[in-house]
Amino acid sequence: MSQTATTVDPGEIQRFSAIAAEWWDEAGKFRPLHKLNPVRLEYLRDRICAHFGRDPLAPQPLKGLRLVDIGCGGGLLSEPLARMGAEVVGIDAAERNVKTAATHAMETGTPVDYRHTTAEDLVAAGETFDAVLSLEVVEHVADVPLFLDSLAALLKPEGLLVMATLNRTPKSYLMAIIGAEYVLRWLPRGTHDWRKFLKPSELAAGLRATGLTVREVMGLVYSPFNDAFRLDARDLDVNYLLWASR
Amino acid sequence: MSTEPPLPTAETDMVADVAIVGGGLAGLSLAAALGTAGVRTICIDRDSPAHQLEATFDGRTTAISHGSMKILEGAGVWGHLNGDAGPILEIRVTDQNRPTFLHYDHREVGDQPFGYIVENVVLRRAQFARLAELPSVTHLAPVEVASLDRGPAMATITLADGRRVRARLVVGADGRGSLCRKDAGIGLVGGSYDQTAIVVTVEHEFPHRGVAVELFLPSGPFAMLPLTGNRTSIVWSDKSAAVPHYMGLDDAAFTAELQARIGDWLGAVRPIGGRYSFPLSWQHAERYVDRRLALISETIHAMHPIAGQGLNMGLRDLAALAEVIVDAWRLGLDVGGTATLERYQRWRRFDNVSLLGVTDGLTRLFSNDIAPLKLARGLGLAAVNAPPLLPLKKLFMRHAMGVVGELPRLVRGEPL
Lengths: 246, 416
What we know:
The structure holds 2 protein chains of 2 kinds. Helix content of chain A is 37%, strand content 23%. Chain A contains 8 helices and 8 strands.
């Protein structure tokens, strides 16, 4: 039984279950996230395992590690990470997302600790983690330096931070705004504000100010031929991932 | 499919990543492959292991191609056979009273046998032994499935004894009349051959030297498949109307019928164990997957045993399915999700459709007595022996060995 069953009112389960079914429908409105998921989960698993000296192909390779997923949404990352053995705290500023994710975890019997809270409040509560994950979030944040400070404060001394976001380039404007929001309609219009996108150098500088060093920046490239994303260290033009540590 | 509110997982539920319905050779092999990788697997089987090991349960033998042997090796099953498998070193395909035949020698494509002939009961015993070693596999038997509910997030199987199994993916391995396939409303395309196979094992005077013979008689193909020792498994396909007569003969008359077809190359033959008969037909499912459901083996395809490929197709299904499941599972992804299931279906459909077509064509070509066709098949058989066509012959042989196409890791002899 999941730890989160108590956070959802039994009367609301059916409603949140319907929303969860939308989040987890691989062909539905969160299709782009489902397309991204295998490659970003593989990146997370492999980098976390390399950092802590584990075998990524062993069963439950993340067992014994405490992770926080900042901006967990419907739990698309939190739940797989928990199935890989990690102890996962998933937080989101939207209560609806937290209840949706918790309902799905209850249905699948996956233990995830979902909380309706912010990174700042977790810092205030003195919580720390082996890995802090913030994927596809920083481009929506109002105060970037404050947010990065909180991420750094949540890290244990030996921990690692993994972030993913969109670069601010002409190509990302074409792909992520014109392409994804207007042509392919993968995302609702207005999902992203291109001016808030951060270049890898800007994000690295922001992290350096918190005492973290960026160890790797990796591009995520969409290939229309096989309708899948893949990692490409030489192409950071649109989506990119990075990891950092002290 | 369910429209009810989701069922929370109860304390008493058995929870797994994958639930396999059907404990036949394909279902048990899949459980062994998944269990070897560490995937939590529950296999639900109608028959008890003790009953399945009784001599009368299944007297058939199975041709295991080289590729299938690799799959069983990767699943940790092959070692438990303890060598009780007859290697096929040569395959001779011949027409009635025709001295020229198509001759395949394994040395032309490498140093491995084409495959092995294994008694089903021996294979089953090895599979039970393997499952007992795997802590992540639960074999529930004997128990019937009472109902199946495939929801958006989980599938729930209610057993006849009231227990519930919850899993992300249900695999239907419950045979030709699959209830899992019917639950998903997946239709079949198929046909009958008006042929029935008589299966019997014979003991013989002279060694078979690992030679398998496919003899094409007008009433249907007659196969001699080498078992261990001086024993050969006979698969005798004949017109369905004629089969009750042969099945009802006394031992002396039945032996005489066998001896007349086998000829004298094995010396005197004597049937051992029972005679079994199976009507022959072919069928193919419209789809292999549905919400939280994947179908394998005989639930999606059945074919004439003429090419000895039935279980080998099923094992290739499971090698591909095990690979897509394990790839998703290692990333914590949904093993019963659309992406996983679509990958499996795309992978297997092409291979299965081609083999069904080839087998159906072979059966129709050889099971008759029409003069022009007799000439054509005589020429066809002789032609593939001709030097310019040797690459084609090699391809046929590699097909028989099960090593053609985009190969799953298990078939390539790699760990899952």
